[in-house]
Predict the structure.
Amino acid sequence: MGETPRGGDPEASQCAPPAGSAGPPTSALPTAVATDVGAWRVVLPVLRELSRRGVPYRVLLANPSARVAVDDGIPYETLAAASVDERAEAVLAAGPSALLLGTSVQGVVERELAVRARGRVPTLGILDAMLFVERRFGPGLAELPDVLACPDPSTVERLRAAGAPAARLHAAGNPTLEEIALLPRSAPPPVVADEPVDVLFVSSPVGAMRLRGAFFEIDEHEALADLYDVLDTLRAEAPAGFRVRVRLHPVQRDEGLLAPPPGLTVLPDDDPDRLRSCGQARVVVGLSSTLLGEARLLPRAAVAYLPGPFWQQERVFGPEYGVTLAPDRDTLRAAILAALLADPEPAPLAGHLGAAGRIADLLEGLAR
């Protein structure tokens, strides 16, 4: 599997075989493939479970996941070929015994592999979220893997309604949330007279999705402006005011911060540890980011601000996540006020505990 790349650009790192190439077949191993950051984060705990079991495996990552995986302690090789076709052929040429695949709404290598590997190598996909779930598998779900591990029963039912065979769907839980749930917990920072209340805004690339034909009422910039307005009405509940940290999605570029109203402090958040960033907040607000569900496990109050008819049709968080859904500014205000007045309830855990083990069992069964 080579050495773990450390620092710098993973595409320039030297592995054995070299990063950027899947290398020649050696022995047939279960092989994980991920492209999106969310895909890598949900695959990673399963790989750690395989390591605990002493099961060897191989990891092939395309960017952006290859960039963020540098410090995660798992050996990997970078898929640097220019085209999805070339990447898929490189993966299959390595002779995997089974494929563990991330998912995406984009045309990533995992989607191509789900088709090309059919009848040759068994495939197991892991969903990191239910957002746009039907779009992750192509028209008529033609790119559905042989087996799909879903994060919750709500997603299973949604895919069944879209025509996915029930036998291929497993409500395995979310291994990322399971891993977070097992970390030491801390109480949220209290609301005190001499410290501003910390609010983390987790951005999502909604504006870019608008360009691809999604009909959102507001984008991430307008959502942040609404958050400013709501916090301005809650000054009486925060004697020292509010500090808003704005955390961009890994695929977003820094375009500068929207200017806040007087008395509101706003600053960028670029902490490489996303959970530490959430842990500093009294409340985490965003749109469709999976980090909202992760924040609930710390536990922190988390609010998904999703106004407009589009979000009434496109479900983002099921009840298994404990994220408050705010379809308008009044609901957003009420949710933030509740977070200021009381610590959050514990997040639902039962469906996620054991997720990594269940998915590892599925993969080992396919690889036999």
User: Anything to note?
Assistant: The two ends are 20 Å apart (CA to CA). Confidence is low (pLDDT under 50) at residues 1-25. The first strand starts at residue 30 and ends at 34. DSSP finds 13 helices and 13 strands in the chain.
